[in-house]
Queue: 2 jobs
Job 1
Amino acid sequence: MTRRTRIVSAALTILLMIAAAAAPLPGQIPPDRDALLNGDSDGMTAYAESNGYPGPKAVLDLAAKLGLTAKQKYDVGEILKDLRTRARVVGKLIVKVEEELHTAFNSGMIAQESVEDDAESIGKLRGTLRGIHLAAYLKTKEILTAKQFEAYTAFRKAEKQKAAEERK
């Protein structure tokens, strides 16, 4: 095997290892477990984002460009902190019920009624989680002045255009 072949082989091996590490684990219950435990939005805020509502993290990232006051930064920071705390609590509950459902199926000790109850609980919890995320966007918008909101909208529009151009 030539030196070049060994280097290419090693590089491919490393890339495969990285891809395997980034992919969800087979059988990971639920598939979005990490996002739930971290309090990530994982697509739950699409309604708000697609309609221009500002997320607390994005607003804090743009604080200087938006000219946020110290009080606004504090208030948005509190919204983000509350969001993450509450989202992690609900996320842990979702994971717990999902794991219980998986374990029940795995053991064969499951009945239709318990499946329906667990599925309904999971749905309600996921709805609660989405509500937590979306409410944070509403609260964040209320903190911004009209001028700051316009600036935020312009920055986000420019970011989307730049991303679209990079994909071409």
Note: Residues 15-25 have pLDDT under 50 and may be disordered.
Job 2
Amino acid sequence: MTTGGANLPATTAGGASTPSGATGVALANNSATGTALATQGNASAAPGTSLIRLGSGGLGASAREVLQQPAVRRALPGIIVLFVLIVFGLVYAWMQATPHRPVLPGLSDADQQAAFEALKTGAYEPKIDQTSGQLTVPSDRYHEARMFLASQGLPRSGSVGLEGLNGQSSMTTSQFMEQVKVNAAMEQE
């Protein structure tokens, strides 16, 4: 025998409801057809149904009621497995993203375009970094790409690395600026 809350009728196994004229909101679950009905007003139940009070317990109580349904209980393990597989797939895809590294920072636009075209024909998968505008290649092929560009005679203009320090010394250059220039040249080498 299931009972309703205050002001709701209780239904016996035969379907007879006890207080007549009771008002309130109830959920009638028909076990023969598997349907659920919400009723308001005179909540008298038909034979073979039971009434469950829709409580004011909030979202938690409603979620518990949904989770108690047999169809949801049967589907819940599949839903959980699907959710876990999606999370693992996203983490795997994120971890497999190949990091890119700038090949020759500080190239002129003409040299950068020529280097981009040369790397593209050499199948090095070059990309232009959207934030810095530098030409980048996958980290695992960084040294190969630098040697490939050197074999192509790139960069053609300007000086790269420690060669850029020649002819730049001045009596007015501070020690800090000299150190910055040396660090930049070492990074380019």
Note: The chain is about 40% helix and 15% strand.
